[in-house]
Amino acid sequence: MKKSRLLVLTLVFVFVLSVSAGALLLDYEEEFGEINFEGESITYVCWYNPLGEFEEGGEYAGRLEEAKDKFNIGDIELIQVGWGEDLSEIPMSRLLGGESNYDIWILPHQNVWPLITQGAFYPLNEILPEDYYGNMARDLRVIAETLSHRGEYYATGVGADHYSNIHLLFWNKDIIDREGLTPLNELYNQDNLTWEVIEEYAETVTRDTSGDGEIDQWAFGSFDPVLWASSNNALVSRRDEDGQMKFTFDNEEGLYAIEKLLEWENAGYFGAGWERIEVFEGLVAMDAVPLWFFERFYDELEDDWGVVPLPRGPHTDDYVYFSYNVDNVYIPANATDPEKLVAVHNFLFRQEEQLADREDFRIEMSPDQTTYEVLIDVEESWSGESYLLEGILGPHWDGGRPFGAVMSPILYEGADPATEFAAGRDAIQATIDDLFDQ
User: Fold this and answer.
1) Closest CA relative to residue 354, chosen from 321, 374, 389, 329
2) How far apart are CA 318 and CA 340, in angstroms?
3) Could you tell me the sign of the dihedral formed by the alpha carbons of 243, 227, 155, 22, in that order?
4) What string of DSSP letters covers 343-378?
5) For the segment 290-341, what is each residue's pLDDT rounded down to a tens digit?
6) Is the pLDDT of residue 13 over 50?
7) Contact 343, 26 (CB under 8 A)
8) How confident is the model over 25-31, as a mean pLDDT?
9) What stretches of 54-108 show up as alpha helix (H) in DSSP?
C-alpha cells in the first residue's frame, strides 16, 4: 500500500473514552501496607515473553530491577510454555507440586476454564478493594467479568490484551472502486453495512477478470463460520439468566448464519485459505482479520485498504466485535501472598500504559479516519464476544471434538444444519455441564 498512514486526527476525546484511563488501578501501599517478599523469587508462566518490554532495549527497560529493589524480590523469572495443552497442564502441575506459591500465570482463555472449575486460581475479589475492577477501563473490566465463575473474579485485567485479536472487516479500496461499488466506509457511516448489502457486493466482485474461464477475484478471504456468525449475534455458548453456560449455536441466529454462510461458500465467494495469500496479492475484496494483521497489510499489500466492522446480520441491530483470544493474568490458588503478587504485577504492567499503547497503535496503523473511529468503538463497545469454550469443545473443523463432530458433516458433507444440531446438541451440552458441574 502507498505509505499514507493516518497522521492527523481529532484526538481530544481519545483518553476521555474511559474515565478510568488515568485512575490508579491499585493503590497497593494504601491497601496492603509495605510489600516485602523477603528475597523470594516470582515466576511468570506464559507462552511468550511478557517481560521483554522491561529488559534491555525494551520500552520500559529497567522496571524489573526497580521492582526487585522496591519489593525485595530475589528475582523475576519466566517459564515459557509452548502453545496448547501444556498451558493448562504445567500450571496445574506446579500447583499440585507446591511450586506455584509465587507464580503469576498469563494464559489464553482456551486454557483457563478447566483450571477455574478445578479451583486452580485465587478469587481476587476476596482480597482486592471493591473499586479495583471499577477503576478498570471498560473493556478490561468486561474481560474480568467474562472470565468470572459463580460470582468469583480471577483475572487481574491488566498485563494481557484481547485488543489486537479483535476481528474487523478489511476491505480492498482498489477492488471496490474498480467494481463501481460504494466504499465500505460510506456504508458504515450511513449505517448500511449489512449482510444483505455485502451479499450484493459479493455477487459483483467474485468473477473472472482475465477471461480465461477461472475465477481470479473473490469477495471474501478465509471461511470461518464461527467468526462470521458472530456478526449475526450467534455465539457457540452464552450464560443464561441463572449464570449457567449453555450451547447456543443452534438457535435461530446460528442456524440462519450457517445456512447463509454455506450459500456464500458454495457460490465461491470465499477465495483464500488460512494463510490468506490471495488477500495480500490483492485478489480479495474483503476479509475478517484481527488487528495484528494491519502491519502485514502495510508491508505486503500494494493496494489501498481500510477497515470497518463486520457487517450486521439480520438478527442484530448492532455491529459485533469478536475476539478469538481473551488472554489474561491469574494468581494460583496456593499463592502465599496473592495480594502482593497482584501489586507487583500492577507495578510492572500499568493500565495507563496499556491504553496509551493502544492509542499509539491507532494513530500509527489507521490508514484512514474511519478505521481510527472503528478502533475507538472496539474499545468502547466490545462486550466479551468470543468462542469462550474453544479449548473444551474444539474448533469447528476438528471432527474429533464435540463441536467439530457436529459442524464437520455440515461444512464438508452437505448435511442439514438443523438436523445435525438436533442430533448433537445434547452431547455438546453434556460436555459443558460436566465441566461446570451444572
Assistant:
1) 329
2) 41
3) negative
4) HHHHHHS-HHHHHHHHHHHHHHH-SSHHHHHHHHHH
5) 999 999 999 999 999 999 999 999 999 999 999 998 999 999 999 999 999 9
6) no
7) yes
8) 76
9) 63-71, 86-96
Backbone angles phi, psi at 147, to 5 degrees: -95, 20
Q: Which of 245, 261, 244, 264 is nearest to 253 (CA)?
A: 261
4: pLDDT confidence band, cut at 50, 70 and 90? very low
Helix axes 338-348, 63-71, angle to 10 degrees: 150
Cell triple for residue 99? Answer: 511450586
**What domains appear along the chain, each with residue ranges and CATH number?**
24-162+325-349 (3.40.190.10), 165-323+385-436 (3.40.190.10)
Mean pLDDT of the chain: 93
Q: How far apart are CA 183 and CA 357, in angstroms?
A: 29
Residue with cell 504492567: 349
Query: Could you tell me the three cell numbers for 313?
Result: 446480520
pTM: 0.91
- For 139, residues 6+ apart whose C-beta sits below 8 A from its C-beta are 162, 163, 379, 380, 382
Contact 380, 321 (CB under 8 A): no
Q: Write down how long the chain is.
A: 438
Backbone torsion region of residue 185, taken as left when φ is above 0, otherwise alpha when ψ lies between -120 and 50, otherwise beta: alpha
Each residue's pLDDT tens digit, 362-389: 999 999 999 999 999 999 999 999 999 9
- C-beta of residue 284 within 8 angstroms of C-beta of residue 221: yes
Contacts of 237 (CB under 8 A, 6+ apart): 245, 246, 247, 248, 249, 388, 389, 393, 432
* Straight-line distance from the first to the last Cα atom of the chain, in angstroms, rounded to the nearest whole number: 52
Q: Which residue has the cell 471474501?
A: 220
DSSP lists the bridge partners of residue 121 as 332
Rounded to whole angstroms, the Cα distance separating 11 from 72 reads 41
